[in-house]
Every structure is written in C-alpha cells, then in structure tokens.
Specification:
Elements lengths: L6 H50 L6 H8 L2 E2 L2 E2 L4 H16 L11 H5 L1 E6 L5 E5 L5 E7 L15 E2 L2 E2 L5 H9 L4 H15 L3 H26 L7 H39 L3 H24 L2 H6 L17 H29 L1
Parallel strand pairs: 3-5
Antiparallel strand pairs: 1-2, 4-5, 6-7
Helix pairs in contact: 1-7, 3-6, 5-9, 6-8, 6-9, 7-8, 9-11
Length: 354
Amino acid sequence: MWSSGLRPVMYQVSASCRKTAGSKPGREHELFLVVSSCRELAHIGVLTAVGVTVTVFPHTNGLQYAKESTQAYENDSPVPVPSKIHNMFLEVKRDLLACASSLPSHDITHERLDSIKPYTVFGFEMFNLGWLRSEYGCWLGVPEYFKYFDGCPPSNRTKVNNRPVPWQEPAGQKLKDSLSISDDAKQFAIARETLLICQDEPDKCFVHTLGNLSLSAAVARSLYLHLNLSAHPLVVTGIMYSVVFSIGASFWFVLNDYLAVQAERTADSAAALLGERYVRAGVEYCDSIVRRNQALRDLMGKDGDSIYTACGNEQTSLRMRHVPIVERLNFFKEKLDAINSQSSETKSLAALEL
C-alpha cells in the first residue's frame, strides 16, 4: 500500500504525464502542416521550373534540335543557303546598323547581329529560333523558295498536301506567281524577321510564364487552405487544381498571342523606318503572301477553307497568333501613300521656288 504522504506526489506526476501526452497531437499536427506546406511549395517550385524550362529550352540548350526539325533537306542533306541570300543578309545588317538610333525598341549592335545566322527552312514562312542573350545565338529561317531567283521553283520540290503542284492549273499558276518575288522583297522579309529577333521575345515569354505559373500556384494554394480541402476527398482537390490551372493556361495563351502580335506590329513599324525601298518591298512581300494563301486555299480544297479566308488571311477562332496579312498589307500601302504624297509636295514646292 502507498503511504498517504506519497499519494499527492504520484497524482501530480500522473497529471503532468497526462498533460504532456495530451500536447503531442498538437505538436504533431503543427509538424504535419509544416511538412505539407514545404511539400506543396516544392511541388509549386518544380511545376514552375518545368514550365519555364519548356518555354526556354528550344531557344537555348535545345536550339540545335529545334533547328534540325525545321531544316529543309534534299537527298538527306540540309539545303544550303545561297551566297546571294548571305549577301542580302549582310546588306540588311548594314541598313539596320545605319538606322539603329531611330529604332529605340530594338537593341541593335554589331555583336547581336553577328550572332544571327541564316538557314533554309521547309515551307513558305520565315522562321526564327534562339535567344540573343544566350551563348547559343539565333537562327533565322529562310524559306526554300527564296533560293529560286528565276521565279520558277521546280515542281518536285514544291508540294501541297504531299502532292506535286499542278502548275498548269489557275491555282497552281497563281501560287507560282506569288513565289516569284524580287530581291528587295526577300531583303525586306529578312530585315523584318531580324527585327523580330532583336526584340528579345524569349525574355517576355520567360517573365510571363514564370508569373502565370506562380500566380496560378498561389491561387490554388490559397483556395486549398480557404476551402479546407484537406478534409475533402482527393478528387475534389484534383478538380480545384485542374480548374485553376486551366484558367491560368487560358490566360497564358491570351497573353502569349498578344505579345506575339504586338511584336510583329512593332517589327513592321521599324521596317517602315528603314526607307522607301523597304516600304515598297513590304507592299510587294505582303501582297505575295495574300496571293499565295488564296492559291493554297484553292489547291487544298476543304482543308484550305479551314486554314485560309477568301481574302488571304489565316482563319482564326479563339486565338490570333499573327497580325492578319491583309492588315499588314494595308499598313505598308498607307506608308507608301504617305511617302508618295510627301514626295509630290516636295516636288511642288521645288517647282514653285524655281
């Protein structure tokens, strides 16, 4: 039996032990919350890093792979860039450097222009890859038909829907005429694509991708805590995350398209500042694209109707990835009309002075 003097001591010890034991679940819960928060932050960090890496990789470490996938080949060998195109590229560089002070939205220097290299791409569109701020430089893709200076690309190298082009038909003749452009028009296309590269679009894409993913993750985390989703089935949490990141992806596409369209408009405006020759070449080049799209629409049948409009623009639904070509054509026509009007006024004033 316990003595009466020991019982209070044992009672106090037992009470203390019960109190200590009762406090363990609270500490364990706090520790669980800390671990869960760290795990979620790690997931958010990994997701953001993956998204940014996917965005930047094709312009840096994956640049060579991206180039090879868009390269034009003939007999399993890359189609070389003709020396005449190289000379055009050098002339464009000289013109851009001469007008660099009037192009404040473009960082144009000898070093940056020297890191841009031309190569031949399949298809009919100009193309660019790379990031001027990286050690890998940039590649400027020139369509294969640029190398045919007589305006008559061979039928076995130009195909539509993997079929030879029927050059004798009206649509085929229209396509052939649209591919027959002057050296000035080719030089304009090279200058305009170079101006696009000099805007450092990967910078903007990196920033808005990082911001979009971070904001989406923060909103998802806030909703998770506010709605106490830890007490709900896992499928509810999955639905919430899916909805949040779907909305975030929608905003990403909208902002990405907006930045691309603004960059193209800025490049066109800058090209117009290079002089009257470039403005006239811009009219010719944009007009050739309109006629080419109309010809492809006819040659491709139902597929062409879903890709191009009757006036030569690309069909758009929810997204507009490029400035409509008719809008670009009208822009350069207005610039050319303004130049012609100013030239007429100058001649009139000169005649009056005489």
